[in-house]
Amino acid sequence: MSIINRPNPNEVFPNPNLPRLCFIKNVVKNPRIIIGDYTYYDDVDGADQFEKHVTHFYDFIGDGAIIGTNSVVAKDIPPYAIAVGNPCQVIRKRFDDELIELLLKLRWWDKSIEEIESLMPILSCGDLKKVKMEIKARI
Predict the structure, then answer these.
(1) Tens digits of per-residue pLDDT, 101-112?
(2) Nearest 5°: CA angle at 51, between 24 and 103?
(3) Which among 11, 21, 17 is positioned nearest to 43, based on CA atoms?
């Protein structure tokens, strides 16, 4: 039996050995704030304290985004962006526009566990051209 190492979207910390990183969606209590799936917050002083540590005047943080420690988020953060600072600025995208669009269409987090397991080799592949090709074949 193989063990697949993947983050549990229902847990606060995707990696229990790395408590400085949490899934924002699982710690935000304000119902007006819409948080995308698999969106991370990185903070050595309590990643699970997002609402306490991050000043926010926004409605949406996109799927797969990463927000830096003690940021002041004054506008929506697009999917798969890395945003930090005061005011919070997108410093870069995690992937190019084509791959972001494909990942948003794939919505792998909404799939059954069996489908996710079959996608893991694709989603964890370092060859992004291959990732794009494989996702296109599945959507």
Answers:
(1) 999 999 998 888
(2) 25
(3) 21
Helix or strand run (H / E) with residue 7: none
Q: Rounded to the nearest 10 degrees, what angle do helices 128-138 and 97-106 cross at?
A: 40
- 40 with 23: CB under 8 angstroms? yes
Residue 59 pLDDT: 67
Please state the pTM of the whole predicted model.
0.70
Whole-number Å distance between alpha carbons of 133 and 44: 37
Distance between CA atoms of 120 and 133, rounded to whole angstroms? 15
Per-residue pLDDT reduced to its tens digit, 71-90: 888 888 999 999 999 888 99
> What Cα–Cα distance (Å) separates residue 23 from each residue in 61, 63, 129?
12, 11, 27
